Amino acid sequence: MFHINSIPSQEYWEHHEGLPCLPPPYKRPIGRPTKKRRKDSTEQSSGSQYKAKRRYGQITCQTCKRAGHNGRTCPDKGSGAAAEEPDLDEDEAREQEANWEETMEAAHAAYVADEEELTQNHPQTQPDHVNVSDLFYLVVLNCWICLHRRFDLMNAQTDAE
């Protein structure tokens, strides 16, 4: 066994020209570290960490999009009148339908002109690729059909009221 004589204070240590005497590296103690920041003494606590607060923000209904109630207690739940899109008045609906009809007529005229050009240049061959004008015509036709269905539904709802 070795015996080390104790020295009363640091002033009696020997001074060496070399590396300084450093403390051991810090090791985090065992256990779960805290994640929350430490609040200052002037900060007010937000309440209990175990109880939920009694008031939350304004509740909005998912059915009719109005504030003050939820979907379970919605008065419009049975009628199914959701306010997802603002209703168009009749003048706007007619104007929109007229614009769609003009677009449809122009697309149809372009489609017919392309078909005539194709039949004149190649009377008996079928194209292997998709023609862009055909695709545009089909998209516009599909949109026009959807618009008419929506317009018919709007008319049916106004007639029912």
Automatic annotation (TrEMBL):
Residues 29-39 have a biased composition (Basic residues). It comes from the Eukaryota. Residues 84-104 have a biased composition (Acidic residues). GO terms for molecular function: nucleic acid binding; zinc ion binding. This is CCHC-type domain-containing protein. Signal peptide: none annotated. Residues 15-54, 66-105 are annotated as: Disordered.
